[in-house]
Structure formats: structure tokens, C-alpha cells
Amino acid sequence: MCVRKEIGLTNISSRFGTSNQYLNREQINNINFKSTKQEQVEREKRKDIYAQMPIRALGYTNELGEAIRPLSPMLANLSWLPAIGYISADIADKYRQDEYAEHDPSKKRASKQFVTQLLASVMLPTLAVKAGQGITNSLAMMSKTGLSLNHKEKISDTVINSMKRGEHKNYLDAEGQVDKDAYKQTMSKKLDEILKHRKTHKQNQNPIRTVINYLKKPFIIKPKSENVKEYANTVIDRLVDERQQLLDDVKPEKLSQKSFNKFQKIVKNLSVEEKQSVAFDTVRKMEKSRMFNNRILKSIGGLAALSLMAKPIDKFVEHIIVGKYVGPTIDKVKNPYNKRVQISQDTGINE
After folding, report:
1. What pLDDT score was predicted for residue 286?
2. Could you tell me which residues are beta bridge partners of residue 11?
3. pLDDT digits (tens, 9 = 90+) for 126-172
4. In terms of residue numbers, what domain contains 293?
5. Number of domains forming the structure of the chain
6. Greater confidence, 336 or 287?
7. For the segment 268-302, what is each residue's pLDDT rounded down to a tens digit?
């Protein structure tokens, strides 16, 4: 028995013609049917200005501030203001609009962006800056002194604070000059503290600092005692000699002529004790200037690390942390309102 199937002709109306017009099979196959969902997918997404330079750079102002914190702590604190403003504006933008620039408030979308900014603009870049500074600081131990930049600064501060308290005056010889050898022996006991990372009683007062120091302990390279004392002796010789040169109206080698003329003008009519005070203040500023150069090196290290890690951090946070873990977790959170709507649709009861 032969069964014959006939394919009926399709009546196409509306945009394909009037109701009396018919299309053959080839014409029907050439029609591009698109669902509403497919059309939405193919719509052009809006341009996210917060993810592109130069506006994206505002998210790194706090990291730039942390990089230059060794140079200017106040400027570092102020650098957080534009970063916080940028992060807040980006989160608000993601809350109000979807990716097609449609007004569609979404707490979930805002939550994702909050996590993204917290990691990509605050935590991870700051860690990168601190790591860059730490590496630069440690590389300095390969120099002749065998000390890190931080150790040099601590030694310099210890000697300066000792002279500020007038301890060097206890070792004046018959001519009124400092006996450097005797002064160095006294300072050696105080310099033993430089070999320690933190004082024990301070750690007990700050439990968070204790934990941080414990985690950092395996990565801390302690300087050799002989290197600390040798560098401290160099600092003492330098400060004492430069101070004495100023008292003898001789310009120190590292002091500019303009600053020396200013010093002479200030102490012209001062007493001996007042002149000694001004001389020490001048020497202290010269030593701080030397330490400033070390801080510049640490800042350069932090900025270099930030420039290398900025884009990898953005991609890691967007595609791995938020894309694979945080984002899907937030999407699974159920909205109580949507749940009530679904129940009413299933039961046919309007709330």
C-alpha cells in the first residue's frame, strides 16, 4: 500500500506579504526567523567607560599613593579619595544599567562589581606595590653595605635621635669636639635593636602586627651584626664631622653653597649653644635627604610592580575569581520577591 503525504502550502501574512500570497519551499527556507532573545544577544553592548583608560586609571590612584608613601605619607592618604570616588561611581553605574544600557537596577550586578573593584582596584594591586617595594628593599642587601634600605634608614634614625637628645655631648674632648670612638662604643648597644624586626612588647600590644610579622618571618633576611655596626660608624663619622665643619665655618662637601650661606647668616649673632643647635638641624636635614634617595628607590620598585601586574590582576579577577566563583555564587542567591511571583503564577492566585 502506498501512502501519499502532501505538504500543505503555508499562508504567510504581515511583513512577508498579504494573506493571499504563497511562498514556495525555497523562499520559506530563505526567511531568517529570529527570536526576541536572539535579537537581544546580537544587540551591541554598551561601552564600559569605567573599564577603559583613562578613567580606569583612577582606580589605581591609591596604589600610586602607596608607592610614594615613603616619600609623602600625606599625599598617599589623599590619593585614596579619587579611587574611592571611581569605585563608587562604577558600582552605581552597574547597579542602574545592564550591559545594553537599559535601565535595569540589579543588586546582584552591583555586588559582583563591588567584589571586582575590591580585589582589582584595592587589595591585589596594593599587595603588588608592597611586594615591589619589598623586593627593591631586599635587593639593596647585595650592595657593599650588606644592608637593606630599611635597615639603613633605621640606623640613620637611631644615630640622629641620639644626637638630638644630646648624648654625643657626653663624649667631648678637651677641645670641645666629640670623641667619636667613645661615642661609637656607646651606640653599639643601642644598635643591637636594629637586628630585631620588632620589639616583643610592641608585638604583644598589637596582635595583628604579631600575626603579620609571623607570616613575614620566613622571608626576612637578618643583617649581619658587623654590617650594622660598620654602617652605623660611617653615619656617626659623617654626622659628627659635618656638624664640626659647620661650627668651624667650613662648608661640608655635600652641602650646597646656597644652604651654607643661609646657615652663616642665621648663626651670625647667635650664641655657641644656639649655633650648635642650628648646625645639628642642618646636618639632620642633610642626612634625611640621603635617606630620601633610598625612599625613591622603594617607590620606583612599587610603581614597577604595579605597572607589570595591573592588567594580569584585572583579567584574573574578572575571568577567574568573579567569572568562575563569585559571580555564579551571587547568581544562585534567590530573590524572595521573585519566588512569590513564581508561586502565584503556578497557583493562579494573585497576591
Report:
1. 92
2. 22
3. 999 999 988 998 888 888 888 999 889 989 999 999 999 988 888 88
4. 146-303
5. 1
6. 287
7. 889 988 999 999 999 999 999 888 888 899 999 99
Whether 131 contacts 305, CB under 8 Å: yes
| Set of cell numbers at residue 117 | 573593584
DSSP output for 288-338 = HHHHHHHHHHHHHHHHHHHHHHHHHHHHIIIIIIIIIIIHHHHHHSPPHHH
In a domain? residue 227: yes
CB 55 within 8 Å of CB 86: yes
Count CB atoms within 10 A of the CB of residue 158.
18
Residue 270 C-alpha cell reads as 647667635
Q: How many other CB atoms are there within 10 angstroms of residue 25's CB atom?
A: 10
Q: Please say whether the dihedral angle defined by the alpha carbons of residues 180, 152, 139 and 301, taken in this order, is positive or negative.
A: negative
What DSSP element (H or E) covers 76?
Answer: helix 73-78
- Indicate if the pLDDT at residue 13 is higher than 50: no
Residue 185 bridge partners (DSSP):
none
Identity of the residue numbered 309 = M
Please tell me the distance from the alpha carbon of residue 343 to that of residue 337, in angstroms, as a whole number: 10
Asked whether residue 199 is assigned to any structural domain, the reply reads yes
Tell me what the mean pLDDT of segment 239-250 comes to. 93
CB-neighbour burial class of residue 43 (10 A; exposed 0-12, middle 13-18, buried 19+): exposed
Query: For residue 13, is it within any domain?
Result: no
Q: Is 221 helix (H, G, I), strand (E, B) or coil?
A: coil
The CA distance from 39 to 100, in Å, is 12
Residue 109 belongs to a domain: no
Quote the pTM value: 0.70
Q: Which residues contact 304 (CB under 8 A, 6 or more apart)?
A: 132
